[in-house]
Amino acid sequence: MRFLMLVCVDETLGMTEADDTVEQWLAETARRGVRVEGHQLRGREDATTVRKEGALITDGPFADTKEWIAGYDVLDVASLEEAVEIASKHPLARFGAIELRPFWED
């Protein structure tokens, strides 16, 4: 099963550089062979939202929330339970939320 893992952070929770242990998480997922790809995204100040209604294009995230998508990963795992276990170990889960969405399978 493949899952899109959205890493959503909340800057108001006091994330610091010292808290960042993403490299360890990346090494563990590489060792297990479950991370297909992933990348950090630029901040919400660089986001652009496109809506069909009148071809409205706006700067910023689509919703006015304190959490924003900081990055993504694609996981290839045996089950939702395994995806949850991997996502729960992501260090940024302490500063927001990790959302898992399964891909449609043909």
Automatic annotation (TrEMBL):
Pfam families xref list: YCII
SUPFAM superfamilies in UniProt: Dimeric alpha+beta barrel
Ranges for domain YCII-related: 56-104
Family to which this protein belongs: Belongs to the YciI family.
Protein name stated in the entry: Transcription initiation protein
